[in-house]
Design a protein that fits this description.
Structural class: alpha+beta
Strand order of the largest sheet: 1-8-9-10-11-12-2-3-4-5-6-7-13
Shape: globular
CATH class of the largest domain: Mainly Beta
CATH superfamily of the largest domain: Lipoprotein localisation LolA/LolB/LppX
Length: 419
């Protein structure tokens, strides 16, 4: 039996008052990548090995400090990403999303190779990617599908994105922050949703939420990617949260988070699970970060494309004045509550969703919305609640939106209180 039992905790832990809190969680592996691949689970082994390693006891504070002090700069391995948020199927999100049969026609302008166009695929399904990092200047992710492969390569001042399905490559210049020993910043081409999909970054965001609304404990040990790991268990104390728990497997030797699992309060399979299935902390070969477009590939200059777009479409780009006017019309974006039960609100302009009682096209839309959203009532009036396994949203008939990782009643209570 492992000596580390779930007895050492920080129930009500406030993040710690040591330098570890000020540093938050400094992750040394700057793998700015994300999982955007078709289901290829059979290519990799299971996450955890059999049995739990026998490791010395460690408190939650000390384990978090270990993560914060971790300064691993080099690694290579395979990451598996599984997402089950309970979202409806998205049109065009099936096979071919790499720009193959369905997306190949867009490859000429580099759309199929743009990292931004991979974000929607993260919303559901299982994805496999291979990652490598060698300090702040060199990272690579290859996202593997049965029929195609998508690669993002950062090497010094160069960033390449390549989609084999459309045989299209986009070449861009990396920001200065990724060169000359300066602190690493993700290339501009990499959307936030992509760079935050590693176990390290997800764990960092989860630990930021740790405060008086959170219980943080060490819950035993595990084998992940063949390595001994402690399991950090993070649980919201607020009853209205839809998050059941977050479990982070931390490498016992170097403090690198190896696996991140978010389970909804409703139970069942994990809503989000991201973890290494194999990992090596040796220096990757220099050739790993070299990229030459294949013969016949369409090469797009990403820098020129970005510079060209504002000149051609500047009239369509909202000005600062337009943005301020929009925020005023919408009543602004406000956040109610704190911690796990924070609710974002956007006030509408008095026109909400169509009702099933409406006639004509609006009536058709209303009937469809009635079929996927639950009609609710309160002192605020009425509206519809749209639900996933984690995030719920209330849209009132007056057009105000309340959204958060909270249950339906919390949204109704927020709307009633704001009346």
């Amino acid at each position: 039996m492992p000596r580390n039992e779930p007895t050492e905790g920080t129930d009500g832990w406030d993040g710690g008052r040591s330098p570890g809190r000020r540093k938050a969680v400094r992750y040394g592996v700057p793998v700015a990548v994300a999982g955007v691949a078709a289901a290829t689970i059979g290519l990799v082994p299971a996450f955890a090995g059999s049995g739990s390693p026998d490791l010395p006891k460690i408190s939650a504070q000390d384990l978090i400090a270990k993560v914060a002090k971790s300064d691993v700069q080099q690694l290579s391995g395979t990451v598996r990403v599984s997402t089950d948020l309970g979202l409806p199927s998205l049109p065009g999100a099936g096979a071919g999303g790499f720009g193959g049969a369905e997306g190949g026609g867009k490859g000429g302008d580099g759309a199929s190779a743009a990292p931004q166009n991979k974000l929607m695929e993260l919303a559901s399904g299982a994805h496999t990617l291979r990652v490598a990092a060698d300090g702040p200047e060199k990272q690579r992710v290859s996202i593997v599908d049965k029929a195609a492969e998508y690669s993002l390569v950062h090497n010094g001042n160069e960033v390449w994105a390549y989609d084999s399905g459309s045989n299209t490559a986009v070449h861009s210049t990396a920001p200065d922050g990724g060169r000359h020993g300066k602190q690493h910043r993700a290339p501009k081409d990499l959307p936030g949703g992509l760079k935050d999909a590693t176990p390290q970054e997800l764990a960092k965001q989860a630990l930021k939420a740790a405060g008086d609304t959170t219980s943080v404990t060490v819950d035993g040990t595990a084998k992940v990617a063949g390595r001994d790991a402690y399991q950090l268990l993070i649980k919201p104390k607020q009853a209205a949260s839809t998050v059941g728990s977050i479990r982070v497997a931390v490498d016992a030797a170097n403090g690198v988070p190896l696996k991140f699992t978010l389970t909804p309060k409703s139970g069942g399979a994990a809503a989000v699970e991201v973890g290494y299935t194999n990992v090596d902390f040796a220096k990757p070969a220099a050739s790993t970060f070299s990229f030459t477009p294949p013969k016949g590939a369409k090469v797009v200059d990403g820098d020129k494309a970005r510079a060209k777009t504002p000149r051609e479409h500047g009239k369509d780009t909202p000005s600062h004045k337009d943005v301020k006017a929009f925020k005023k019309d919408m009543g602004g974006l406000n956040v109610l509550g704190k911690g796990w039960t924070s609710i974002a609100t956007i006030k509408g302009g008095g026109s909400g969703l169509p009702s099933g009682k409406d006639q004509g096209a609006g009536g058709d839309a209303g009937k469809f919305l009635d079929s996927i959203g639950e009609k609710v009532h309160g002192s605020f009036g009425s509206g519809r609640v749209f639900s996933t396994r984690l995030v719920n949203a209330l849209i009132t008939d007056h057009g105000t939106v309340y959204v958060g990782a909270v249950d339906k009643q919390a949204l109704i209570d927020a709307a009633n209180a704001a009346k």
